[in-house]
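Posting for a labmate who doesn't have an account.
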Amino acid sequence: MTTKRKIIIDTDPGQDDAVAILLALASPELDVLGITVVAGNVPLPLTALNTRKIVELAGRPDIPIYAGCAEPMDRPLVTAEHVHGRTGLDGPTLPDPQIELQAEHAVDYLIDTLRETSGVTLCPLGPLTNIATALRRAPEIAENIREIVLMGGGYFEGGNITPAAEFNIYVDPTAADIVFQSGIPITVLPLDVTHQALVIPSRVEAFRALPNRAGPAVAELTDFFERYDKEKYGSEGAPLHDPTVIAYLLDPTLFESRHINVTVETQSDLTLGATVADWWRVSDRPRNATWVRNINADGFFKLLTERIATLP
């Protein structure tokens, strides 16, 4: 019997975060130990509420949820209601959740769990504040982290919150810098990949046609989410960013990547939060991350639709 991969999802839902959580909870290969929540797309009270709603939609009240950092390590919080709506989860009408948050702070949960459990993969879908804070407070936990597979950054596609920076990294560049310098194996799903994973109408309708609660909810999430990006990029659909992290764990053959150096800009006013990816290996900086460059979008959406179909 194949051993399940132990993961902790760190998230700031967000419609695309919601779809990523649903994909993880629909995948028997993954053992979701817990979900930690951070401020990002919207403030922490809303990201925590949204996470509880999504876990309940998946029919998984057994998954513990921990609220974490309400603001970045050393700068004011920047949010993205202009993309995700006032609640961060605009689109479907989801009932108020019955699941309660755990009393423990997310950073304490990360430290306690990673001291006791080896071989855990961290899956950050938002700003890296919780992860970096845990690493700064308890650097010894790094040895029990198998890998960090994160959505963030961009190089060939530039940024999406500033010309140079992707939102998750820009919100807390200090945290991102700590994570990228940690020595932990890191895989990055950047805008370079997610901008190839577009929720075009045929893919949305495939979700809407599913005979369960989760499928139509995903269609409504993407219906709302895509309005902003379709106008911004002039594309047929919006990028579905965060589920690429979970898909990478499930089927890395859907992706093409290269092991390179990635350095986060923390000083410049002009390029704060930029992920400087040495794709062509022209510097002598040590390789510290697997940078994913391409995705088989049809295969990705096939996997996503098949897995969402198994939920209640």
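Reply:
Got it, the structure tokens are right above this. The chain has one domain: 5-308.
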